[in-house]
Fold:
Amino acid sequence: MERSLPARGEVILAGLGGGGILTAGTILAEAATARFKNVTWFPSYAISRRGGLAECTVIFSNEEIASPLLTQASGVIVAESAQFKDYEVRVRPGGMIIVESAGLKDEASRKDIKVIKIPAIKTAININGTSRGANLVLLGAFVKAAQIIPPELVRQQIEKSFAGNKTTLNQNLKAFDEGQNLI
Structure:
């Protein structure tokens, strides 16, 4: 028997550079289309220089989505620990924030949210020798902790997205799975 899913999910993903965060958001949004009637993916990134701030918002719902913009979300993923304080305020009361633990110096100032620290960079390095894939470690942790979308749908989307390169595909699937195992 399949567990029923909430009627709505929302997450803000943030980091530097853009590619990893936008890819993780795209994978989540595309996976959500298999279960939800309405899905939005809204990227936002600094164009002033390469490697600047990047953010995307993903909302999936069985009801109409009034706007792809959110000032706060029930879930936030922060890939760059220096951005933690900036995004702590973007979590709705009762929500959660998943943050890269490497270099994290700040502690949460709020008691009404759940903070999950994930060693995504270290985990990715253990998988493939580089930090590539840390985004999918964080996504795996989010999917497991939030339980708003079945992990198998995200795995299927990773398989579709990286089907052209078997090595990258296997590393990304492992990164996603390891992220789930960290929860």
